[in-house]
Amino acid sequence: MKNRFDTIIFDWDGTLIDSISWIVESLQSAAHLCDFPSPAEQAAKDVIGLSIEQAMQTLFPTATAAQIPQLVAGYRHRYEQFHIGPEHLFAGVYDMLVKLKQSGYTLAVATGKTRAGLQDALHATGTEGLFDITRCADETASKPEPLMLLQILQHTQTQSHRALMVGDSTHDMQMAANANMAAVAVSCGAHPAEVLQQFNPVFCLSQPAELLELIYRD
To answer: Is the link from the previous residue into 144 a cis peptide, with omega within 30 of 0?
Structure first.
């Protein structure tokens, strides 16, 4: 894959940072606080990557318009108790990003997080300066709509066939397909390899730092 891509776009949760268990616990806590049945672990994982409002609507289809903000508030109350730091990045991720940037790749993030949530996470992990552009669900369409990818392509002046999406969920894979973009899956996050493979990624990696070997392969 050497020289095949100019821009590499990463999902955040479950792709660069080991945060899936925190998100699942926070979704389950929100259900408890708002007197909804607690979602099973995989059901909670299945909505990771969507905007938080869409995730709540999917997990709790009987929730009223007034209850969705309460569920979101309950989720944020629990999630904000976790203190993210550089140590929560998956092994080798920081060095991978540095090497890719130094090699001339344009790096970006496309995430279901809010802008405030992503900015806090980038600052806490020391990765803010490594990305040329980031797009969040509260400032564009939620995954799997391709709008955030298309906006990144426009900003970076990259053609879709010269960009690569890296993600851990079916939402990431479907979003890439919707944008006519190649994708690499990582199975360390929301969905296992056998599920991700159904979307025909270029490769399915067990850990994100394995991307380096893949990128520099002749």
So the answer is: yes
Q: 92-109 in b/e burial notation, b at 16+ Cβ within 10 A?
A: ebbebbeebbeeebbbbb
In this prediction, residue 1 has a pLDDT band, given cuts at 50, 70 and 90, of confident
Handedness of CA 197, 201, 202, 204 (dihedral sign): negative
Amino acid present at 209: A
Q: Per the residue annotation, which of 11, 18, 46, 172 is the catalytic one?
A: 11
The edge-to-edge listing of strands for the beta sheet with 106-111 is 133-136, 106-111, 7-10, 163-167, 182-186, 203-205
Q: Which two tokens stand for residue 100?
A: 């890719």
DSSP assignment string, 94-146: HHHHHHHHHTT-EEEEEESS-HHHHHHHHHHHT-GGG-SEEEEGGGSPPTTSS
Tens-digit pLDDT profile for residues 56-112: 999 999 999 999 999 999 999 999 999 999 999 999 999 999 999 999 999 999 999
Instruction: Give 182's contacts (C-beta < 8 A, 6+ positions apart).
Output: 5, 161, 163, 164, 165, 176, 201, 202
Clarify whether 11 is annotated catalytic.
yes
* Three-class SS state of 204: strand
Q: Which domains does the chain have, with CATH numbers?
A: 7-19+87-215 (3.40.50.1000), 20-79 (1.10.150)
Largest alpha-carbon pair distance within the chain? Answer: 55
* pTM of this structure: 0.94
